[in-house]
């Protein structure tokens, strides 16, 4: 329904997962996933086993577990069927062509723009991203060139750089990293929030 309580899509879903960028991820009564406009028009047909949002894109999982990327208008991103896909940022998407293989980046046409060589690749922000190569955490630019090397080593997860020029990276706990590679706050944090604001909120992990 809309903000006035008027029904805009006739009830036909088992569940509506989320609304992303004016698009509805819905599950039909046969538990097939699709993407719709707020008026109920089909953007991505309900024929997938799962769909998640990757920034401005949608990642759909087929029955054979292959992954397909769609833009907000339902167009596929490239012809490659990816094993894993990360979060889009600044028009670049981290992808893994084969399970357990290296990660690279494609643009919104599906063209590979940074060749796969990373064991971990995270979202771009402010035209830079965090990535892991040979056990080291790197800051890379849009060409894949290393611009800094934060002293953190390998990490399992990381955010994009926000407007603050900061990102977080870590595993069970996280550190705050600047664009120039400086560790602004050491790897002691349970949470980091509001990276797009002048004041970044951090929450320390409970001490052992």
Chart the SSEs and their pairings.
Blueprint: E1 13-20, E2 23-28, E3 33-36, E4 42-48, E5 50-54, E6 57-61, E7 67-70, E8 84-85, E9 92-96, E10 103-107, E11 112-118, E12 120-121, E13 128-133, E14 136-141, E15 146-148, E16 157-158, E17 166-170, E18 174-178, E19 183-193, E20 201-204
Account of the protein in words:
The chain has a domain at 115-208: Thrombin, subunit H (Beta Barrel). It has a five-stranded antiparallel sheet with strand order 16-17-18-19-20, with no helix packed on it. A four-stranded antiparallel sheet has the order 1-2-3-4, with no helix packed on it. Strands 8-9-10-11 form a four-stranded antiparallel sheet, with no helix packed on it. The protein has no helices and 20 strands. It has 208 residues and is an all-beta fold.
**Hey, roughly how much beta strand do the residues contain?**
over 45%
Radius of gyration: 19 Å
Tell me roughly what share of residues is in helical segments.
under 10%
Total helical elements:
0
Unreliable runs: none
The H-and-E topology, N to C, reads as EEEEEEEEEEEEEEEEEEEE
What is the class of the domain at 115-208 in the CATH system?
Answer: Mainly Beta
CATH topology of the domain at 115-208: Thrombin, subunit H
Structural class of the secondary structure composition? mainly beta
Strand order of the largest sheet: 16-17-18-19-20
Any key phrases for this structure?
single chain; 208 residues; mainly beta; Thrombin, subunit H; five-stranded antiparallel beta sheet; 20 strands; 0% helix; 49% strand; globular
